[in-house]
């Protein structure tokens, strides 16, 4: 959690989200549900920035650690099966969906937990650009079922009932090729 912004994938992600919400959704409350929170760098940074943060993770050890941080509400379980009564302005899947079967149903589960005008933020491994450097890159393993291109990200969003508001291809400070997107419900 001590990496500077220029070297942290998570802190760069926080900056992208905070800026996008300031510009595009200034009237929405600052509530976020982070799915697959791991060790909690992203949710804690969001809490530091004034967001009401809920974290969901299936690993009891991660949840115990997240609870010890004291900044966020934490649930152990799998999304969307975990029972959360709150609705959110933002639901995030940061390098999570590529690990999940069934992917469309998991992403679709976010629809019921969004406030009106709420968004989903996803980050996915960019297989198209990573492949240019060879198949031995981490985008193609680490228990990944999928790697993505910009068209396949758009197809995933549509199948789950979302439209892409904004998407971009980046290379994270860690060197990972990443696609990120803000999704809204199909009207």
From TrEMBL:
InterPro entries: SAM-dependent_MTases_sf (IPR029063). This is Class I SAM-dependent methyltransferase. It comes from the Bacteria. PANTHER family: TRANS-ACONITATE 2-METHYLTRANSFERASE-RELATED.
């Amino acid at each position: 959690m001590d990496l500077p912004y220029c070297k942290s994938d998570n802190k760069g992600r926080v900056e992208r989200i905070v800026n996008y919400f300031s510009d595009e959704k200034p009237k929405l409350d600052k509530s976020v549900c982070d799915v697959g929170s791991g060790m909690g760098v992203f949710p804690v940074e969001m809490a530091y920035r004034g967001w009401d943060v809920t974290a969901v993770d299936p690993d009891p050890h991660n949840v115990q650690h997240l609870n010890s941080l004291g900044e966020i509400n934490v649930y152990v379980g799998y999304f969307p099966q975990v029972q959360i009564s709150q609705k959110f302005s933002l639901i995030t899947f940061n390098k999570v969906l590529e690990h999940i079967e069934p992917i469309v149903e998991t992403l679709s589960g976010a629809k019921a937990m969004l406030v009106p005008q709420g968004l989903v933020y996803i980050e996915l491994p960019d297989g198209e650009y990573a492949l240019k450097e060879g198949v031995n890159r981490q985008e193609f393993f680490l228990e990944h079922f999928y790697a993505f291109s910009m068209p396949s990200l758009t197809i995933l969003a549509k199948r789950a009932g979302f439209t892409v508001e904004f998407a971009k291809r980046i290379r994270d400070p860690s060197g990972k090729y990443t696609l990120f997107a803000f999704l809204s419900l199909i009207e």
